[in-house]
Write a structure and sequence with these properties.
Length: 200
């Protein structure tokens, strides 16, 4: 299996199906918009998975917007993760940052809580860490949807805890370069405050 740019494929119908089957309508952006970022497809002649990444400005970090495979339970997720890590490291990036849905969100069904917990466990097994950020969610939502931030070091297999200024800079990079928010934005300041990262 290999990783190729989505734009190099003559037909993206199968890639679109993997994407749309993997995410609810609430979590999806229009498929065509993904192609403005770095959209990478895991293929063995047919598309098997998709990862969409966006550079976080002048940092050497990259934000993983979407990560999904078609046939689950076959180890494709681990293969896609390994290939994405390799590709990003070769491109000069040192960290992948991304958000996941919070399994502790109030009001969700037990089955959904299990899915979210398993997703976090999957990334943790592969060397990522949960970031101790409180109150983080994506902007421009009518009803704020609690999310958690995770990160993986691309220079070593296991990621060390991210703390202090590094933690603050990571969170700010996400809000600045993934979502276009200024540091003085109320959401950014609120997240910094609830995470104990607001500078006095």
């Amino acid at each position: 299996m290999k990783l190729v740019p989505a734009t190099s494929l003559p037909d993206l119908a199968q890639v679109r199906k993997i994407y749309e089957d993997g995410f609810s309508a609430r979590l999806r952006t229009p498929f065509e918009d993904l192609l403005t970022d770095r959209a990478l497809v895991l293929t063995d002649g047919s598309p098997r998975g998709l990862a969409v990444l966006r550079e976080l400005g002048p940092t050497d970090w990259v934000f993983l917007r979407y990560f999904v495979v078609g046939d689950r339970g076959r180890g494709l997720g681990a293969i896609l993760w390994s290939e994405v890590r390799r590709e990003m490291a070769e491109a000069g990036f040192t960290r992948i940052v991304y958000d996941v849905e919070d399994p502790a969100e109030e009001g969700i069904e037990e089955a959904e809580e299990t899915v979210r917990s398993r997703r976090i466990a999957f990334y943790t097994r592969l060397g990522a860490v949960l970031l101790p950020i409180n109150g983080y969610h994506q902007p421009n939502e009518d009803e704020p949807h609690p999310m958690l931030l995770m990160a993986a070091d691309l220079t070593q297999a296991q990621t060390a805890p991210i703390t202090g200024d590094d933690l603050r800079d990571t969170m700010l990079a996400v809000y600045r370069y993934r979502y276009g928010l200024a540091d003085a934005d109320p959401l950014v300041e609120s997240t910094l405050r609830t995470s104990g990262l607001l500078l006095q």
